[in-house]
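Posting here for the record, re: manganese (II) ion.
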Amino acid sequence: MTRTATIERKTSETDISIRLVLDSNEPSIINSGVSFFDHMLNSMSRHGQFHLNITCKGDVHIDDHHSVEDIGICLGKTFKEALGDKAGIKRFGNSIIPMDEALTMVAIDISGRSFFKYSGTELKGSVKTYSEELTLEFLRAFSDNAGINLHVVQKYGDNRHHIHESIFKALGVALKSACSIDPSIKGVVPSTKGTIE
Ligand SMILES: [Mn+2]
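Prediction output follows.
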């Protein structure tokens, strides 16, 4: 069974369409309107082994904020929908991913409860025209809308491109693990409550 979801969301600030296919190595097609963010989402989906087709027409003439945040909202919703009742999934996932001198750790629990915690390197600068704090906006919006408990620890790094790319890769790898179907779980919902909403 293909685990997939499509979300369309239009506001006065952004017009977004996202298709997500889990368990797929098909290359993603990403046009967020923010080139550095396209590169990050491509990295995340490649290493998370899911396919994304994202189109966003946003008010980037103001700045990139609405586009990045709203893509986080929509991507969170697609994951929530694609995972359905979450029967048989591993639920927990973690990763420690280097990119040259940068190292990021991510731990997630697809618990149905949203919680986002970031610690480590302060993200207050910019990479070319991309404001680093947008990465935090994206992660928070994604966690909130996916119902995922997400912890990101950016341990260290010098190059800002590497720092962000290690974050997105680490999230992809942790998601792949947490979303994967574990045959030993035998199709039950992995919760003592019997349900994850
Ligand atoms: Mn790169």
